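cache lookup: miss for this entity combination. No prior model stored, computing from scratch. Input as submitted by user K.M.:
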Amino acid sequence: MILVMDSRSSDTDLNTISEKLKNLGFELEVSKGKEKIIVGIIGDTRKLLNFPFHSYPGVIDVLKVLKPYKLASREFKELPTVIKIGDASIGGKEIALMAGPCSVEDEEQIYEASQGLSKLGIKILRGGAFKPRSSPYSFQGLGERGLKMMSEAAKKFGLLVITEVMSIEQIDIIAPFADILQVGARNMQNFMLLKELGKIKKPVMLKRGLSSTVEELLLSAEYIMSGGNKKVILCERGIRTFESYTRNTLDLSVVPAIKTLSHLPIIVDPSHSTGRKELVCPMSKAAIAAGADGLIIEVHPNPKMALCDGAQSLDLNDFGNLIKETELVAKAVGRSLNNIQVTV
Ligand code: PEP
Ligand code: MN
């Protein structure tokens, strides 16, 4: 339910009704706009059927959220959500860059990747330790050993870590090593996992399912948010179409669409969506032009030797060039990259 108040209402007006609703057990999400103050009311709003909203000064209207997702909707929260982790932020003016190998393979590989990425100013290191591979015979990741390797390398170079969680049992194993937990495309509708992730405090990056609609993506975000964890980052990573030249089809229209439907940050994965390293830089630029809040990109110190997704992985040199090129697009749309200044 949404309470609309006049933006000229005094703090006392807002506090009076807020206190009343809080005392009735509701949680509130306040967005102060130029013309209106929007107060999202969280809880069993059926109890408010006879609540005398209009007897409170400043109240203009009380509305039902019409979308099937509520907490994730723009109606509910007008201002964009900005997720701050250390000195990185996702969803604000800065575009967050997350980069690293598909999988952690050994100490040397993750050390070299972290060293190279930190030199380029990257703040968030990606790397899989538990890998959702299509074939049970493919490299499945190093598990907990891989998490430790990644966390040590990240600490040494001052990087934050994002890594994938595939099951409920893995949450407690991964959380101590990760700053952001990633839900992969194949698990976007693993509702039990999403519910458990709603109970943790760390941000969750939710990747769009292989054949999921925007509404399904936002409903999955709602699963996490309704459990209490509001720190959700959405990720477009390509969807299945008839096209087989690219690994998936990058649906960039989803970026501006999500911006109108939701306040949550949305980032783009040009690596898994194209499957081809030569397409990663052009699609990164297009993603930023479309309004993406960040990019997650596969970078390997030696892509030819990668145990997983080498064909779509950039080496550090190519990634350095990508940063320079995307920086120009970021500037053109009034944003900057979330890394140290790179001179172009
Ligand atoms: C990944 O990012 O490591 C990954 C497996 O991606 P997706 O879930 O999008 O396939
Ligand atoms: Mn991969």
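stored under new cache key. Residues 2-63 form a domain with the Alpha-Beta Plaits fold (CATH 3.30.70.1140).
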